[in-house]
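README, section 4: Worked example with a bound small molecule

Sections 1 through 3 covered apo chains. Here we extend the same pipeline to holo records, where the ligand is supplied as SMILES alongside the sequence. The molecule in this example is magnesium ion. Nothing else about the input changes; the structure line simply encodes the ligand pose together with the chain.
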Amino acid sequence: MVGFETFLEPSSTERKTGMAYDLPEGVDIRGKYDAEFAKILSRDALQFVADLQRELRNHIKYATECRKEAKMRYNNGTLPGFDPATKYIREREWVCAAVPPAVADRRVEITGPVERKMIINALNSGAKVFMADFEDALSPSWENLMRGQVNLRDAVNRTISFHDTARNRVYKLNDQTAKLFVRPRGWHLPESHIFIDGEPATGCLVDFGLYFFHNFKAFRRTQGEGFGPFFYLPKMEHSREAKIWNNVFERAERLAGIEKGSIRATVLIETLPAVFQMDEILYELRDHSVGLNCGRWDYIFSYVKTFQAHPDRLLPDRVLVGMTQHFMRSYSDLLIRTCHRRGVHAMGGMAAQIPIRDDPVANEAALELVRKDKLREVKAGHDGTWAAHPGLIPAIMEVFTNSMGNKVNQIHTVKREDAANLTEEDLLQRPRGVRSMDGLRLNTRVGIQYLAAWLTGTGSVPLYNLMEDAATAEISRVQNWQWLKYGVELDGDGLGVKVTRELFGRVVDEEMARIEKEVGQEKLKKGMYKEACKIFTRQCTTPILDDFLTLDAYNRIVIHHPKGSSSRL
Ligand SMILES: CC(=O)SCCNC(=O)CCNC(=O)[C@H](O)C(C)(C)COP(=O)(O)OP(=O)(O)OC[C@H]1O[C@@H](n2cnc3c(N)ncnc32)[C@H](O)[C@@H]1OP(=O)(O)O
Ligand SMILES: O=CC(=O)O
Ligand SMILES: [Mg+2]
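The generated complex, written as structure tokens:
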């Protein structure tokens, strides 16, 4: 193990190796060499990541096995629920460490991929927080991930700029910027361009490790007011996964020589099993927590996934599964109650609407939907919420500020004790609504176009005036799979058509024709639409549901450079 102090200075051990990365023992890089990437992938930074991986790999494997075991139980008919063994954690009075002053006010948070121009725009957007995303909004190609690390380093050091040559516009940071949170990938995704002891590294440890290593010092000085760095943690299913993150944080703090509790993280509650573990997750992270967030889109995806073997719990059309469905409202209410009882932020989620530039009437209608959604959140007791686009920030800020007045959050003022009575049944209640041919078509059209964008390096896209990312695309995929698997009757159009493979095949052909008409023949040919259609169709029709759309698709974007990318000195 290299002492952490040696990491901090540009060290003499970071030898110039020409066109190859300088690697510690047991680490191999199979991604393309780039001189900028080499500054991120320094020997000492890689050593830090490798040490995290070595210390935690068995815990990660165990947690992965537990996920499989839980899936088997749900597939055999068990319903997720509160764990009697951890009742004492839910019932006892305890609180998380106090919220750091730098992030007490999080009323509007903007999110976006770690792309250079977007990072600058997001930090300048007027939002209180910017969540820079290696996850739902990013296609994890080697190029995107490593450029993302370069961009974040420059953002934290405040040297980031971007020259849009086509528009001759230079982007720079304002004096006042949003506070930066970083969201690493979920536990399930490998980083197949970095091998540690012969195995692909765990994606989130690479994202966390490289970012923390290069930025913790500057971050604490420039924006954390002595705390930080700050993170969002996605897609957890159980508190044992939060415990692994807590170990990661403690280890990083120890090695960096910073106080325990410096690193803070907000956990997304975006899987159905995790809603029954909210106290337990906060408890594991009680020294490092700044709250929970309603990751509503992955949560809906997870509802389908968890109940993949329960034909009595089929979803209605995707557009009908909103926050006013009883199970969604119950989840948000219980999350608020749990967070405020434990002294941390209860963050709202993402409304999918984005500005519609060429149609003022439609734009106003979209904005009104966002306002309504945000008003519901702030009235329920959320302390802040997410915006997908800078154009939405003034309206959302106004809703939260009008409702919260001078308060920076509602942690101590809105307790929601009424939500203590919510039951497992409330949290699992079947969503209501119809299923329609339009729903099947929309899922198909959106799923294919999103995947085509993802395969070519773009992880969040505007489609039909809505933001689409990995989480929303997952809903389209699993909903089609579920409807096909159980041959549901489309009762929403009065036609009573059953979803069969033949019908779905026809829908795919027709929707591909529609996509061609919309994007043009040229773009269709140049893009990855046919490949995307193949992957999406296979995943919708496979007898056993794939765990993640992006796991299969990831293999298509891994590009190994066996020669000249790495060297062992
Ligand atoms: C389910 C979840 O996990 S939600 C969280 C993950 N998802 C996300 O973070 C999605 C974030 N949003 C986005 O990626 C984008 O807003 C999109 C793809 C939906 C739409 O993007 P675009 O089509 O480029 O929007 P549009 O053309 O209106 O952009 C106008 C300007 O706003 C900027 N912009 C748009 N969204 C963002 C954003 N989220 N952050 C920073 N800047 C943004 C654009 O870069 C552009 O800047 P410019 O005028 O300087 O060139
Ligand atoms: O990550 C957020 C979500 O809604 O999913
Ligand atoms: Mg998500």
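What to look for in the output: The chain has a mean pLDDT of 95. The pocket of magnesium ion (ligand 3) is lined by residues 136, 234, 268, 270, 295, 297-298, 471 (CB under 6 Å).

Section 5 describes how to batch many such records.
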